Amino acid sequence: MHRLLRLVRRRVGRVQREVEAEARLAEAEVRQVGARLLEPFEGLTLFDAVLGIAPISTQYYGHGAFMGAAPALLADAKWRRILAVLMPDVFADVRQGRG
């Protein structure tokens, strides 16, 4: 019985290591695909110059803060990419000054 248990444990350990190695490979592939998907959105121009929006230095009111945060979000490359990926139509409007 102990011999069988050792064999099973050994086999389970081997399978676990194989699965973990495959998971690492899959994660690396997903990261590469994600990087390729975001490539076209790198280096998007700053919207402040296009829209003439002054930076917000203070914010006293929080209700509906996303509206107040819009200039700051548009000035950040990461958030511009998020907008471009999730809402390409809105991104196009904002980029052309129709937002």
**Strand-pairing-aware structural class:** mainly alpha
Strand content: under 5%
Distance between the termini: 72 Å
Helix share bin:
over 70%
What's the SSE blueprint?
Blueprint: H1 2-38, H2 47-51, H3 65-75, H4 77-86, H5 88-95
Helix pairs in contact: 4-5
Q: What does it look like?
A:
With 99 residues, this protein is an all-alpha fold. The chain folds into 2 domains: 2-40; 44-95, no CATH class. The protein is 72% helix and 0% strand. The protein has helices at 2-38, 47-51, 65-75, 77-86, 88-95. α4 (77-86) crosses α5. The longest helix has 37 residues, at 2-38. The chain is elongated and about 75 Å long. The termini are far apart. The model has no long low-confidence stretch (mean pLDDT 79).
